[in-house]
Design a protein that fits this description.
Blueprint lengths: L1 E4 L5 E6 L5 H14 L14 H13 L3 E8 L2 E10 L8 E8 L8 H15 L5 E7 L3 H9 L3 E12 L2 E11 L2
Parallel strand pairs: 5-6
Antiparallel strand pairs: 1-2, 2-3, 3-4, 4-5, 6-8, 7-8
Helix pairs in contact: 1-2
The structure holds coenzyme A.
Coenzyme A binds next to β5, α3 and α4.
GO molecular function: acyltransferase activity, transferring groups other than amino-acyl groups
Pfam family, one: Acetyltransf_1
Organism: Desulfosporosinus youngiae DSM 17734
Length: about 180
């Protein structure tokens, strides 16, 4: 757990999710699904519940190669970063990252703190050697954030996302943990 001051002076706690965060995490996902078209799910599209969030948190906390890290401001979830490592022996060393910050907190430095926390967590595992992610090629904010920390564009998935009949390509990006 780490407490730091944001660019605007407010205090933020960065820590792993616990089962008690399930209800707030469910709410957080409902909010972010309505606030950005850069996520793989749209508004009211996620049929998750506090119970399913509790199961997700529990299984991440039991796995050596998965994690959910929260950014908390004023006791509210302002952002999270997730990493799901592979299940089989041949895929355990790699996994997929996801990140989102509530719109009202964009541009305050939370994305930076979450990416730093994930890289630090990954370096401290004995297992994780590669972080993968997908991001729409027009998500310039996210791409700048990833490139700032050394993520590399590895390829393009064409027609990866379709929103209201419009297709969007995604970059596959990656980061080595060595
Ligand atoms: C992408 C996202 C997580 C960034 O979080 P954030 O808290 O706003 O980011 P930060 O304020 O920490 O900024 C981190 C970096 O992102 C980039 N960035 C932030 N705002 C930007 C903007 N308006 N334009 C261009 N780059 C920007 C910069 O590189 C910045 O680094 P700096 O602090 O050195 O300038 C957030 O915008 C978000 O949740 N977006 C919607 C969901 C999403 O796109 N998720 C990623 C899916 S792949």
């Amino acid at each position: 757990m780490k407490t730091v001051k944001l660019k605007d002076g407010s205090e933020i706690v960065i820590r792993k999710a616990e089962v008690d965060d399930a209800e707030q995490m469910d709410l957080f996902k409902q909010y972010i699904s309505q606030e950005s078209d850069f996520l793989s799910y749209g508004a009211n599209e996620i049929e998750e519940s506090a119970e399913s969030q509790a199961r997700l948190i529990q299984s991440a906390n039991l796995a050596e190669n998965s994690v959910i890290i929260l950014a908390i401001v004023n006791e509210e979830i302002a952002g999270f970063v997730t990493f799901n490592g592979g299940f089989r022996v041949r895929k355990k060393h790699s996994g997929d990252m996801g990140i989102a910050v509530r719109k009202k907190y964009w541009g305050k430095g939370i994305g930076n703190l979450l990416v730093e926390a994930l890289i630090e967590w990954a370096r401290n595992t004995e297992t994780v050697r590669k972080i993968n992610l997908l991001t729409r090629t027009d998500n310039t904010t996210a791409i700048s954030l990833y490139e700032k920390y050394g993520f590399i564009k590895e390829g393009i998935l064409t027609r990866d996302v379709c929103i209201n009949g419009v297709f969007y390509d995604s970059f596959s990006m990656g980061f080595f943990i060595d």
